Amino acid sequence: MALTPVDFDPFADAAAPALLPLTEPQAEVWAAVQMGDEASCAYNQCYSLQLRGPLSAELMESALR
Hints:
This protein is an all-alpha fold. Helices cover 37% and strands 0% of the residues. The protein is built from three helices and no strands. 0% of the residues are buried.
């Protein structure tokens, strides 16, 4: 799937920018982004799971929600 860039700022019409406090995890991600690509890559993690036995799709969907 190809992504299409858009030139849209949802806050352009706002009278004043909204200043909201960041949670600690959000602040960590913001700081990593400010340090550059190598630092922010630390938040890209990949896990592989191998499940065994019968799977209930309903329970799996509920757990992921």
